[in-house]
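Bug #77: duplicate submission created two jobs. Keeping one. Sequence:
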Amino acid sequence: MDTKRIRTLNDIVCAAISSAAVAILLSACATRSDTGVPAPVAIWDDQKLEYQAAQEIRASDPGFGSAHLVIVSRNGVVLLAGEVETEELKAKAAEVVNSLKPVRSVHNELQIGGPISLVARSNDSWITTKVKTKLIAHGAIDSDLISVTTENGVVFLMGTVPRDQARYAVEVTQTVFGVSKIVKVFEYTD
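Kept job's structure:
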């Protein structure tokens, strides 16, 4: 093969790869896939929002220095959990997060009191793992649609799901030892 043909073939291959890369990037820009699972860009937006919310809350008042904040965002719906010292700090945290874009709603589940112990946090991680495992094992639940967060034995279930999946998720979560309460932060698709 001569060099001119090799260059032409190389140009064709490069163009095909570039076109495929553009197609992949454009498909990743959608906020949800056809299955309802958050697309990478939606996940990235939620993570940025969680980070921004934490930074803004902590910067808004020195009282947040001793707070234990758990901030979870799913499609612009933000869950605030953890512990703060006063009712005023609890209200201020919600106010700060509500002012951020693209926040659509805030579920303020902050508790008044000092931060929970590391042992309690480890137990919460274990409860979350058990709940997620049971959701994955359940045949009728699309576990990719549901986020699970546990704080001081309270399990928060959030996501955009059909009502029957939400009901199944709650039923499964109720069977996990150590769960003291279940809080549903669902948006329903039906």
